[in-house]
């Protein structure tokens, strides 16, 4: 089941992120570090109703933050419990978020990943994203380049015409 995360989920999501960080470290992925993401990021996403969770057998197995900037929705802090990767849960959560974007008439969905995170790059390409840009974050030079992946969403003619009314 996919729902918005609640305040009582903070510790479980933090534990999921710790597992994901440990896996990233083992895989030499330079994207996250001990201080990011942290409890403050999780709590803010939950309070702002931006954090979505996928629950399987009473356990949160995948999470992502989803928020709007203009006509674009952004996915951040997207993670799956390492023992549940390759089970399709990230794809299920992503599909749910894409559907929300379509219902909310977003023009596109974007996300950022590190050059070293081949798994996320492959995931985004599999979901129909394209690499839109790359940059270096001055505050995180040791991480190298970051890639922006975007996917244009199709808004039906009926939905588009209702926007002009």
From TrEMBL:
SUPFAM superfamilies: Acyl-CoA N-acyltransferases (Nat). It comes from the Bacteria. It holds the Pfam family Acetyltransf_1. It comes from Pseudolactococcus raffinolactis. InterPro entries: Acyl_CoA_acyltransferase, GNAT_dom. GO terms for molecular function: acyltransferase activity, transferring groups other than amino-acyl groups. Keywords: Transferase. This is GNAT family N-acetyltransferase. Residues 1-154 form the N-acetyltransferase domain. Coiled coil: none annotated. PROSITE patterns: GNAT.
């Amino acid at each position: 089941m996919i729902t918005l995360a609640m305040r009582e989920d903070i510790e479980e999501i933090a534990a999921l992120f710790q597992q994901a960080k440990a896996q990233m470290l083992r895989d030499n992925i330079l994207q996250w570090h001990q201080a990011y993401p942290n409890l403050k990021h999780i709590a803010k996403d939950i309070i702002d109703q931006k954090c979505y969770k996928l629950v399987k057998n009473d356990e949160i197995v995948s999470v992502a933050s989803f928020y709007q900037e203009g006509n674009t929705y952004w996915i951040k802090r997207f993670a799956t419990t390492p023992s549940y990767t390759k089970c399709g849960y990230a794809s299920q959560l992503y599909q749910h978020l894409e559907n929300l974007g379509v219902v909310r008439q977003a023009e596109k969905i974007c996300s950022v990943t590190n050059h070293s995170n081949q798994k996320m790059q492959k995931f985004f390409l599999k979901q129909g994203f394209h690499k839109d840009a790359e940059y270096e974050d001055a505050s995180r030079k040791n991480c190298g380049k970051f890639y922006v992946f975007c996917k244009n969403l199709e808004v039906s003619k009926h939905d588009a015409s209702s926007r002009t009314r």
